[in-house]
Amino acid sequence: MAKLCIYNEIVDEETKVMYRDWFGMDAVCYKDIHDFISNIDEGDNAIELKLHCPGGDCIEGWAIYDALRQSGKEISATIEGQCSSMATIILLAAPKERRFAFANAKMCIHNPSLAWLDLCTMERLTADELEKMKGKLDAQQIALMEEQKKILDLYVERTGTDRETLQNLMNEDKFVDMEKAKELGFISDTLAPNTATKTTKIIKNMEETKVKKNLLDKALRMLGLSKIEDVESAILNQKITAADGSEFTVEREDGDPQVGDKAYPNGTYTLDDGTVIVVADEVIESITPADDNNDEDVNALKQQVADLTAQVETLTAENTALKEEKSNLESEKSSLEQQVQSLTTDKENLTAAVGTLTSEKQALVTDKANLEAEKQTLTENQKSEEDSAILDTVAKAGGKAWLDNVCKLQSTFHPGNRTFVESGKRMEGETRTQQMLREQRERQEAKRKALNK
């Protein structure tokens, strides 16, 4: 049997971290309980819940309650100190016949409340801001009323007490003892102390209580006992035989065995009438009547059917979603294959085009080189227009022989013999060469004017 002890305030995980890091305090959150249930051995089908808790966060409390109810384990719960607020919800995760308490424990149920109001704060409040605050208050009031109804519904369902009685107790917001908790149906019984007790009687006259040894021995022999210590054992102990022939002993003077009685050896015993008695740590931990077992089995089967139905519905929905996803993926695959084929064709065309362009580029490079060579040749052979005109003039004047003669001539020009004549007439003292050059310049000037027109 796995033992789950909830001895601290119930908070969310973030608040738990803050409690631990800032204040050095411990707390309980849903994740703790989830991890606890997840780590229980598969062969262990029982959870023993110990409560000494002031309550706390509603959301976390409901999550813990649901986790315990959905664990599939046989849950028993015991209030050891106090059980208040959301801790009473967790208590009700166990069936009524397996809910117990120490005699001195206390319990408190009350209406849910807020630790603080979720309102904006500012120095001045306008009419619009007050209207917004009123809306927030209304929303929080509705949420609290819904939470209160939800808690009350569970109390009525799991305790069997009428709604009005429970609501009145929630309104009072006060502790009640375990007799009241038993009366309200929150627990089935209180646990008796396990330690042995000795009663010492003070007798004024010790002489009146003395028994002669021979008479005592005679009485013991009549009872089939050898010594006085066997009297208490013979009176207090009940030996019970289970349906399968196994035996266990209950230390009880009379009446049927009760939860909390000292018993041994430990184990689970099913009686002939179907009653199941669980002995743990040499104490009767639970007694489940046959009818309750049947109801519990039926309820367990119903729950299993409901769980399986929910799983089937979930798996059906998941299967439908997967089929739709598969169809979408196949469509995407087909589209991608077409795109790949198109891109492959484009790649082949581009590869061919690159080859063609590469060849054309090579041809153009060759043509360019040829043209540049031709250009260089033409540049070297090309003569300017003025050079051509001079050559023509030299040819008309007599060619190379004439030019050689001219080159041999010495200039007779000096500033003193320079005179000017009217335009169009030969200057006095002008040489033949000077005349030829002047005429050449005049022809070029006339040609330029003709081109400009």
Output the helix-strand order. Answer: EHHEHEHEEHHEHEHHEEEEEEHHHH
Biggest beta sheet summary: 7 strands, mixed
Categorize the overall geometry.
rod-shaped
Could you report the average pLDDT, rounded to the nearest whole number? 81
- Tell me the distance between the termini: 123 Å
Radius of gyration (CA) equals: 58 Å
DSSP helix count?
A: 13
Which parts are unreliable, with pLDDT below 50 for 5 consecutive residues or more?
Answer: 196-213, 231-235
- Portion of residues in helices? 40-55%
**Strand portion:** 5-15%
Helix/strand structural class: alpha/beta
Number of strands: 13
Helices and strands in order, then pairings?
Elements lengths: L1 E5 L6 H11 L6 H9 L7 E8 L4 H12 L4 E11 L1 H6 L7 E4 L3 E3 L18 H33 L3 H10 L2 E2 L1 H7 L4 E3 L21 H10 L6 H8 E5 L5 E5 L11 E2 L2 E4 L5 E5 L2 E6 L1 H92 L3 H13 L1 H10 L23 H21 L1
Parallel strand pairs: 1-2, 2-3, 3-4, 3-5, 4-7
Antiparallel strand pairs: 5-6, 8-9, 9-10, 11-12, 12-13
Helix pairs in contact: 2-3, 11-12
